[in-house]
Amino acid sequence: MKGALLVAGTTSDAGKSVVTAGICRWLARQGVRVAPFKAQNMSLNSFVTADGAEIGRAQATQAAACGIEPTADMNPVLLKPGSDRRSQVVVLGRAIADVDAMEYGAFKARLRAVAVESLERLRAEYDVVICEGAGSPAEINLRAGDIANMGLAQAARLPVIVVGDIDRGGVFASLYGTVALLDAADQALIAGFLINKFRGAPELLAPGLDMLHGLTGRETYGVLPWLDGLWLDVEDSLALDNRPAQPYRPHSLRVAVVRLPRISNFTDIDALASEPGIVVRFVRSAAELEDADLVIIPGSRATVSDLGWVRETGIAQAVQERAAAGRPVLGICGGYQMLARTIHDDIESRKGHIDGLGLLPATVRFTAEKTLARPVGTAYGHRVAAYEIHHGVVTVDTATPSRPFLDGCRSGSVWGTTWHGALENDAFRQAFLADVAATAGRPFTPAPGISFAEFRAARLDALGDLIEQHVDTGAILDLIENGPPRDLPLIHPGGAR
């Protein structure tokens, strides 16, 4: 078979990424050569491909669902917000500019061509390409410059299914309204709907689904039930707000992750979920650190700005007091930079010289050239494969006593590294956690035989199962091969057809 499909959504975090991954996984299990694609992604969770290109983490996970290596063509345009108004623009894996929303408009024509060319290359190499939209196609204020939703669908003549999150409420209104706000040419490509995150008996939805069909002339191809644990490798920090807080248990190893305003690559923490006896919380206050055995300061797209927030909230003082008391702290990438003595930044924040938290004997200098790499090293006697994405270059002061830790260092109970993904290495992760537990004085022993790769594969299989069991897969195959049904009715705002 040959073809493509665009999975759009009524909102951000409606489930586009997981539905796309699920369709990819299901097709791959049928022996189809399939690849994922997202023309434009806005995310602070990114990944480095084997040839050193930076793409959205969600597309790397979708590639894993397909059983293939990720490439820059799978996410040709990546926007990484550094503030509420400015984002770094990454094109085919390389940062080219830092712009505000108005300045970005000047790039749109060029980027649309880049996106279409990337999709064409993928379609030439693979039998099927499952595309993921961005935000909502009904963001009509942005339609003229759209390259990720209906702009892409028009350029590549893609059939579109729209995913609605029923857990948010108002799913029928949002599905209907998404179609009704589009012009006739765009509506002609909207083939139908999927409802996501349903809790209860699907029969209860039948009257609404019938009315939606009557109003739009479009089918609902499936109702996906709520399934816990599908937050793996999400692309949007909004998903953290929907992740339930786990209660600390008496014999668990308790991990508190600082929820920075511009938190990036928080997927580094996902591997901890594969370990029985580990409880992870994302926290925003100093008080929430008190009963944690390990505090992690994760990556940040705005290191200096987020360091200011860490100080304002009192978290900085709490972390310094923990370190003085010999209680474990881990900094990853931006978090590592915050733990250094000094930061010199004329690139990201342009604030010049800034004092760090002073917990590691290191200095940081930001450079214009971004480091993108897939390093391999050894720690605790085990091989560690990871990836790097950073402008800040950390130099460890060798005159001050410290111990090596991956590419960074350890001083007392404080560890720091720029390497993302290190915790996904099972033997290293368990040795590190055992050291943390011993340092914290906790009676915790990692369970043997845990494989994060198998944990992730099981999650991807669960997504494939969702599609296979709850979606009209025959109709999806027909859309992929033949495009949207002909003569779909035009919906006018107000309900007239």
Automatic annotation (TrEMBL):
Residues 6-230 form the CobQ/CobB/MinD/ParA nucleotide binding domain. Residues 254-427 form the CobB/CobQ-like glutamine amidotransferase domain. CDD domains: CobQ_N, GATase1_CobQ. Keywords: Cobalamin biosynthesis, Glutamine amidotransferase. Pfam families: CbiA, GATase_3. Pathway: Cofactor biosynthesis; adenosylcobalamin biosynthesis. InterPro entries: Class_I_gatase-like (IPR029062), CobQ/CobB/MinD/ParA_Nub-bd_dom (IPR002586), CobQ_GATase1 (IPR033949), CobQ_N (IPR047045), CobQ_synth (IPR004459), GATase_3 (IPR011698), P-loop_NTPase (IPR027417). PROSITE patterns: GATASE_COBBQ, GATASE_TYPE_1. It comes from the Bacteria. The keyword Signal does not apply. GO terms for biological process: cobalamin biosynthetic process. Catalyzes amidations at positions B, D, E, and G on adenosylcobyrinic A,C-diamide. NH(2) groups are provided by glutamine, and one molecule of ATP is hydrogenolyzed for each amidation. This is Cobyric acid synthase.
